[in-house]
Design goal:
Helices cover about 85% and strands about 0% of the residues. It is mostly helical and about 210 residues long.
Amino acid sequence: MFGAMDGLVTNIALIAGVGGGGIAPRTIVLTGAAGLVAGAISMGLGEFTSVRAQNEQVAAEVAKERRELTRFPQEEAEELARIWERRGLPPDLALEVASTLGRDIDEAVRVHAQEELGVDPDEAPSPWVAAGSSFVCFSIGALVPLLPYLLGATSLWPALAAGGGGLFVAGALIARYTRRRWWASGVRQLLLGAAAAGATYLVGRVIGV
């Protein structure tokens, strides 16, 4: 959803900017298509790099936990016990459970990673899935304001109207997860996109062709 919204705002603003400059519809289509491809690739590469770096960081931290559990099992058990004590477990019971857990190094690593780092090493997200979904969703969003031109429109306003409708729908759909009023969420997203398009439109009008 956020990838699609990014594509919507980016291409609406781009099309509004070049359209405000008074260029021909064919050139606007070329510009919008280039913006779609460039933005989708950028989003995909960015997500891939971000998720892969996150996974590598988690893997490094988990490897560090494994080394510490191997070298200092008692100290690590006491550290885990203190965490459980703060959650209300009796000290003796917390230390007994933590020490018993340490006998299974793989399970101990998993629990320590969850309790100390807040991550589950067995549930690392895929950078390829993140990159692919971002690429596709951005492309879908960026295509919406371009569609009127592809269907034969010769003026800027149908493209802006299509983009605005897409922003409203995207905002309304997000309200399903945020518990906001759907129309309020849709209007908010529409206004944010309109601000971006308005700014680039004014730049296009000032600079012109």
